[in-house]
Amino acid sequence: MEKIFKLEGTEDTPQVVFDISKNEFSLSGRSLPEDAASFYKPIIAWIANYIKNPNPSTEFRINLEYFNSSSVKQIMVLLIQLEEITKTGNEIKIVWCYNENDDLMEIKGSEFKSILTIPFELVVC
Amino acid sequence: MNPELSYRFFKKLGNDHFSLIYMGEFDDELTSTLMRLSEAGIGDPKIFKKRLSFLIAECFQNIIRHADKPEIVNITNNKPKMFLVRNIGNVFYIGSTNLIENSKSTGLTSKLNSINKFTPQELKADYLNALTNNGFTEKGGGGLGLIEMARKSDSKLEFDFEFINYFLSNFFMQIRLGTFNEEKEDNIDTVTLKSTKELYNAMVQENILMIRKGDFSQHAILPLIELIESNLDLNKKLPPFKKKTLYLLIEVLQNISKHAKENNGIREGIFMIALKNNRYTLNTGNYVDINDVESLKNELENLVSLDKNGLAEIYKKRILNKETDQAGNAGIGLIEMSKYSSEKLKYQFTPYSDSLSFFSLSITV
User: Fold this and answer.
1) Closest Cβ–Cβ partner in B257, B258, B329 for A73
2) What is the number of other CB atoms lying within 10 angstroms of the CB of residue B151?
3) I need a labelling partner for B237 at 20 to 30 A (CA). Which of A36, A50, B122, B162 fits?
4) Which architecture characterizes domain B4-289+356-364 according to CATH?
5) 8 Å CB contact between B199 and B16
6) A41 vs B contacts (CB less than 8 Å)
7) What pLDDT, on a 0 to 100 scale, did the predictor assign at position B35?
8) Cβ density class B232-241: b for 16+ within 10 Å, e for less
9) Chain B within 8 Å of A80 (Cβ-Cβ)?
């Protein structure tokens, strides 16, 4: 599989950086594509491959400014996949960054945290 | 806010392919957002593009430069400034409304009347004269803006004053770009200044800050979100527009673009934002297939019957469901709207034709 997966951010899609060698995994910016399922398909596919042979310790950072509800659903699919990592004895942690005044990102983070069973950190940044 | 309003204003804007009516505070930074917004919504009128952009900018800046401020703050709230663009076929209307001191209205009236009487040659001479000689106003421009509007539009500068009190009147002005082909387009109602005044007063009465009618594809939505965010930041008297509200805004706008049924070849809808009792309401309206009404109604009835916990539960269920078809996503959008609004969703279906129904939705933030 490709060691690096990168997408530049646009005004309605996020910047995606997955870099196995640097152990960097992040999703940031805006995510409000009209067709979120198609946009996230290759991202989810890459992660599906990654979890088969992950780094010993993975930190997945999410820092979004705007998003739509269908993106939230796709991100949930992505994060649920990451739960698999613990089954192979490796570590995974989600870091959910939100701006101090961003009530919505904070609420969404708490929602995700309550649904997921892996370490999930809510951080003001 | 009554969901029926979406339908009422959709009807009022009748044949418009595109309408944007904006009320509130204006500043120079908004000009470019507004131009992007108009250009994104208007499609492809190449013949006019330059003139149209010029007139939009000129008209908009005229409001910024020349609006007078009332001494009693209350009047600003009751008589907001307005900017309007409406497109029907290949014809565009651009209009503005702002307060003006009565002491200036005589001078303005005679200036406008003389501009309206000029031939193109006389307009050009007057323009050159105004360029070299800073007459008319101390704010600069010397009436240049008005002369340029007259030169670049295809109509007279229509105007009127609505008396408010001893000191102030509301000044309405409107121009047209393009001309109707009377042989081909017999059913076109032209947008009269009288109808613009009625529209203005109806919007004020319902506390509407903005109306946008037309196509709601993604490239038209993004500048709209930007405009709303910057307008509400600009106007410090309004309650803060939180991220949650923007989320709902994105949802309702994308809901139109995803689910509206085409009528006469356009997937059109209406969006309105209003402020009443310090709360924002987002209203939308669009055509839906008459066969989808039952299931949509059931979904909405179910959501309205649920309390907070019930909504959280159904949200969790849907978001964990791996099915990612359109319908599933639409369901999530409506649940999110129910979760983050302060009142129950209000909606209405108005039969329109044998195959279409008009769906109005109102969300209170």
Assistant:
1) B329
2) 15
3) B162
4) 2-Layer Sandwich (3.30)
5) no
6) none
7) 76
8) beebeebeeb
9) yes
CA dihedral B202, B205, B207, B208 (to 10 degrees): 0
Looking at per-residue pLDDT, the higher value among B200 and B43 belongs to B200
Nearest chain A residue to B318 by CA distance is A73
Instruction: Please tell me the distance in Å from B339's CA to the nearest CA on chain A.
Output: 11
Distance from CA of B324 to the nearest CA of A (A): 7
Averaged pLDDT for residues B93-106 = 93
- For the ranges B18-27, B46-55, B245-254, the lowest mean pLDDT is seen at B46-55
Decide if A98 touches B, using CB distance below 8 A: no
What is the ipTM, given to two decimal places?
0.88
pLDDT reported for residue B140:
46
Q: Which CATH class is domain A4-124?
A: alpha beta
Say if residues B213 and B15 touch (Cβ distance below 8 Å): no
Q: Give how far A22 is from chain B: nearest CA, Å.
A: 31
Instruction: Give dist(CA A66, CA A32) in Å, integer.
Output: 7
Return the residue in B215, B225, B316, B319 with the most chain A beta carbons within 10 A, the one to mutate for interface testing: B319
**What contacts 24+ positions apart, CB below 8 Å, involve B322-326?**
B322/A77, B324/A37, B324/A73, B324/A74, B324/A77, B326/B258
CB contact under 8 A, A69 and B322: no
Measured in angstroms, the CA of A11 and the nearest CA of chain B are apart by 8
Q: Which amino acid is at B251?
A: E
The 10s digit of each residue's pLDDT in A86-98 is: 998 999 999 999 9
pLDDT average per 10 residues of sequence, chain A (125 residues): 93 96 96 93 96 96 93 94 93 95 90 94 94
Residues of chain A contacting residue B258, judged by C-beta atoms under 8 Å apart: 34
In chain A, which residues have their Cβ closer than 8 Å to the Cβ of B244? 103-104, 107
Residue spans per domain, chain A: 4-124
